[in-house]
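User: Please go through the entry that follows and flag anything odd:
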Amino acid sequence: MKDDLRSAAPVGNLPILNQAALGKIEIRYPSLPEQRRIVAYLDSVQAKADAIRAAQAATQKELDALMPSARSVAKAFAGEL
């Protein structure tokens, strides 16, 4: 793609791409079934990421609930209670 852009630009110190030059560049896309496969894969990755975020949030909530107890235990062992 980078080489396509360079070859489409006029030669000079500062290459300039205009609409005509860009219109000549062929952009290749995966076939529709391949695009659908990619989307399905990315959807599954997103679902896993969402599940991990939910588990992390639940774990953080549990930690937040346990911290006061842990501080009390630490104070008790330190003789501060």
Remarks:
- DSSP finds three helices and no strands in the chain.
